[in-house]
Amino acid sequence: MQLEFTKMQGLGNDFLVLEAPAEGALPSAAQWRALADRHAGVGFDQALLLEPARTAGTAVHYRVFNADGGEVEQCGNGARCVARYLHLHGRTAPDGTVNMGSTGGTVAARVLADGRVAVDLGVPDFEPGSLPFLAPAENANYTLEVGGEHIEFGAVSIGNPHAVLRVAAVEGAPVERIGRALQSHPGFPRQVNVGFMEIIDAGHIRLRVFERGVGETLACGTGACAAVAVGRNLGLLGADVAVHVPGGRLGVHWEGAGRHVWLSGPAEVAFRGQASI
User: Fold this and answer.
1) Is 81 labeled as catalytic in the residue annotation?
2) Is 198 helix (H, G, I), strand (E, B) or coil?
3) Residue 75: active-site member
4) Which residue among 220, 228, 230, 261 is the active-site one?
5) Of 15, 71, 190, 233, which residue is most buried, by most CB within 10 angstroms?
6) In the CATH hierarchy, which top-level class contains the domain 2-122+266-276?
């Protein structure tokens, strides 16, 4: 199978963007893993597969495959790259707006004049069943025993599951150890993305994210939204927050309960190519 792709990235969170093959055959999990290999393949955090729209008013339906070959519900930086891709191919409205379908729901996007892309990732859902998370009731904070430690965190769905821990400083946070252990905790039947948030002030945080099926990434868009939602839910953050991730800075706007969360940042083409699998 010959695949034509566009390699894209948003603050170092990198993606393989490709149109679904016309013959309908898709790469297997093993083939996705081979393509994701940064030495023997193309290398990516997620592959974004573009299929024909399934819902009226949308330009495309995109599916998200992690580097381990597993399919997941949503990817915020990936959504921004899909919107940028559609804009470059003349598939958005003249003002740069577009609606896109995904497993995690419909996403509205705007390609801004300065090249940044903003996406509406819906209403953050703190109900445990939405992640899913096996908790008896919704709370602002939960505690689980992980690796012999009692870990406190907030939990929220941004179309995909997130646990967010507050830390004094992200630089020394045990991202690999705690992230991997909490990600696979039986309390999260479909696993969970784990964010480590350092609050600087009401408008600025630092964040590192251990993504399920990938490991730590340079940026995580839904992780940034999850961190702001958890921090704002605790009364610690304002409506507009600059999220400093290892790859740069993302912007998150969330006015509070029942309102949609918006994510903004750069989305760029790295190169285009072909791969045989």
Assistant:
1) no
2) strand
3) yes
4) 220
5) 15
6) alpha beta
